[in-house]
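Can't paste images in this forum, so I'm doing it all in text. The chain is below; anyone willing to post the predicted C-alpha cells underneath?
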Amino acid sequence: MKYKSLLLVVKDLQRSLNFYQKVLGLHKTADFGANVTLTGGISLQTEESWLDFIERKPSDLTYGGNASELYFETEDYDAFLTTLEDVDLVHPPIEHRWGQRAVRLYDPDRHVIEVAEPLTAVARRFRDAGLTEEGVAKRMDVPPELVRRLLK
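Text version of the structure:
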C-alpha cells in the first residue's frame, strides 16, 4: 500500500481554492470540477459531492474539530506572517521551546494549518546569534550531529 494524498471536504470550493493559493502559495495540479488537487498532495472536495460519495447528509459532517493539522514550512517565515491579514488565527505566532517559530491558522472551513520555519532556519538563527554548534544543540534540545547536518 502507498499513501497518496489528503482530501479536505470544503463548503465553498472556490473560496478554499483562493485561500490555499493566496495564503499558502499552492497551485492546482488537477481540476475535476468537484475536486481540485493542489501541490503538496492536498485535494479539496466539495461538500455536496463528498456527501454523495459517503451516502450521508450535511448534518453528518462537522468542521473545525481542532484534532489535526496540515503542516507547512517556509524559509521566509517573517515574510509569510505579513500575508496573514484577514486570516483567522488559532493562536498568534509563537516560538516553541526548541526555538522553532510557528503560527497556526484556520482555513475557510476551520481546518487547522501550521506554518513554521524549517529546523535548518532555526539552527542558522541561533548560530548567527553567536551560539556554537554545541550551544545550538543544547538550545534546540537535539543531538550535535543533527545540528551539524542542519548547518551544512
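The beta strands are 6-10, 28-31, 35-38, 42-46, 69-73, 89-95, 101-106, 112-116. The chain is about 30% helix and 25% strand.
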